[in-house]
Fold this sequence. Notes:
245 residues, mainly alpha, 10 helices, 76% helix
Amino acid sequence: MSIIRVLNAEMLKLKRTLAFRMIFVAPLLVATLQFFVVWNQRRPGPDFNLWEMISRASLSVWAVFMLPLLITLETALINGVEHGEKQWKHIFALPVPRRAVYTAKLLVAQALAAASTLILCALIVLVGLVGARLRPDLPHPGAIPYVWILKYAAFVWLASWLIIAIHTWVSIRWQGFALALGAGIGGTFFAIFAASAGVGKYYPWLLPLNVFMKERFAAALLIGALGGVVAAVIGCVEFVRRDVV
């Protein structure tokens, strides 16, 4: 019951931020990029598949770039209200367990990431339909791969749990909005250079992308989902024991 009350309070506070708008803006940017890729497609090969190109490319860009940045922004916005208005002491004075506060913020961050990923799935289908209509010269795309899109979207989201847990703790632990954003931007851009390295198999910001690689798939889901739970528990324990926020 405590978590439910805190969740309701978090949802009300989010109306004062850009968090809800960003779950639409971020996937729209990826979908717009893929639309122009389809529009400018020239001389596709014999193995060209419109749906495979759009869905795989969109989810890959989402996994390695846009989703980590969205998580960074959303967690910073979720906890920025308390930091900006100095509300932590007031929250801790309420008859609500600290672990309920931390858990609610983590769940909200996960829900926003999941909602935005589902919106991207809908936009992938829309871009494919519009692209097939505007570019009739391209090979017939065939049936819409709903199962593949939703399955890999779920994998990407599960592998991002560790990123969500890290940024939830960082954005709560330190007051600076710029510090939270800097950590996320730095981690995301470093992933571009670490993708081909051996450490990329375990690097948190690359785990969502790794689900598309057979040799890294199992590790990505295990480290992402299970590591996210472990990191969330550690962050919650540190949050509960801290005297001053």
